[in-house]
């Protein structure tokens, strides 16, 4: 099974590098300059080697279909608290490893889904959604006034909460 996953990763990498090579050749044509530039990576620095979804709708669809929990990180690029948490998250080897088991989405804007702001629209906040598409309001951080906020000092708690989100899955399905 291990070998299989390596092969598929390899094929994926080949496909990506081919796609990149094609783009390089097209640089001078007008069509590429007209298109708005997508961010270099959907990770926005939260884990460049992880697979991130682009939209909330895509994330929900993938969580439901893959039977994986979804982790949504709300943050802002110019918020020092968000930046500090991002750095801690990206540098934490165990969290990065565990994150591979989730459908991942990080958002720099609010969605219209009120369920993603159970106690307000603050950043950074992290919510977990199970494959039945239920927001797990029971998986909280340590602050009673901002239930889904985490600081770099809470990184172990976040790791434990990620494990909790994965465990729920096994017991409930």
Automatic annotation (TrEMBL):
CDD domains: AGR
Gene3D superfamilies registered for this protein in UniProt: Glutaredoxin (3.40.30.10)
InterPro entries from the UniProt entry: AGR/TXD, Thioredoxin-like_sf
Keywords associated with the record: Endoplasmic reticulum, Secreted, Signal
GO cellular component terms attached to this protein's record: endoplasmic reticulum; extracellular region
Primary location: endoplasmic reticulum
Location in the cell: Endoplasmic reticulum; Secreted
Keyword RNA-binding among record annotations: no
GO molecular function: dystroglycan binding
One family name in Pfam for this protein: Thioredoxin_7
Stretches of the chain forming a coiled coil according to its record: none
Signal peptide start and end residues: 1-21
Keyword field contains Endoplasmic reticulum: yes
Family: Belongs to the AGR family.
PANTHER family cross-referenced by the UniProt entry: ANTERIOR GRADIENT PROTEIN 2 HOMOLOG (PTHR15337:SF1), ANTERIOR GRADIENT PROTEIN-RELATED (PTHR15337)
Protein name: AGR2 protein
Organism: Halcyon senegalensis
């Amino acid at each position: 099974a291990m070998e299989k996953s390596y092969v598929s990763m390899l094929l994926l990498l080949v496909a990506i590098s081919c796609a990149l090579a094609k783009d390089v050749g097209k640089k001078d044509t007008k069509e590429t300059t007209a298109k708005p530039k997508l961010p270099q990576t959907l990770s926005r620095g939260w884990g460049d080697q992880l697979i991130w979804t682009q939209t909330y709708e895509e994330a929900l669809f993938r969580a439901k279909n893959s039977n994986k929990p979804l982790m949504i990180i709300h943050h802002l690029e110019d918020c020092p608290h968000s930046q500090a948490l991002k750095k801690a998250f990206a540098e934490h080897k165990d969290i990065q490893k565990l994150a591979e088991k989730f459908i991942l989405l990080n958002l720099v804007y609010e969605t219209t889904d009120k369920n993603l702001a159970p106690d307000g629209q603050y950043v950074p906040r992290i919510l977990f959604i199970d494959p039945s598409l239920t927001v797990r309001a029971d998986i909280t951080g340590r602050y009673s006034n901002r239930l889904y906020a985490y600081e770099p000092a809470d990184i172990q708690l976040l790791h434990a909460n990620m494990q909790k989100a994965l465990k729920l899955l096994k017991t409930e399905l």
